[in-house]
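call fold(seq) -> tokens
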Amino acid sequence: MSSKVETSRDETGRYLRAILRLRCASLRMTTRLQAGILFVVVCVSAAIAQESASPTPSPSPIPEESPPASISPAEPVTPPPVPEQTPSASPARSVRISFVPPPLEGRISLGIYDAKGKLVRVLHQEADLNEFKIGADALVTQWDGKNDDGQDLPAGRYHARGYLVGPLKAEDLSQTAASPTENNSSANVRVKLTPNPLANDTRAIVELAVGFDSDGSYLKTNDDLPLFTVNESPNLIRVSIMKKGDKSVDIWQTDGAGSHQFRISNVDQMMGFDCGEFELK
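ret:
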């Protein structure tokens, strides 16, 4: 009887120990699980806290402009000099002049004449063709409405005309003791020009004279339009012209010490042209 009771107690003890081991194992598992959950919660909380602690990037501030340097009251302020304005022609006074050049190689002299036929402006003197603007079917130039002294001319009708001067030849003959007598020389000579086929001018005649200034002597029309430079001699005091055949003229110039003679040949190699009338406002 007692042996059965002991056996029963032994089995009961083993059963209780087995249950105790199972509970201990379960407790350890629960503890580990809770520790794992706690670790995860702690990590997540730390991450959230770190993200909350990070400052939100703000836009870069716009740099403020430095205030202009102040000027000391003791320092005088000098205004910059006003640039000198070059006088120019008013658009309302600018006149466009166009013309078809005569079919001849040479240089162009062009003048502006008033209603009475007086030369008021030498617009071009012995000019090359490249000094003009080339238009659609003519050469073009501009007149600013001023005379040779730079003064504004009154409003009214004006005329433009000129000459194309061909290959004239200036020959230095010699130094002479005196100019020709008044009976042999004259203020101007009449020369027959080469007809301009564009103007249907079959009997073109021009009156030529000679002039001088500080730059020397020059052949000109009787109304003072310069055509051809004869000689670059300063200090001239007198000039004269005389016709020498149909195609030449002789010119004498005096500078006080003596006279010098030049012969200008091929004076017939010139053509006149007309630019017409226009209104100056």
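Residues 2-53 form the longest helix (52 residues).
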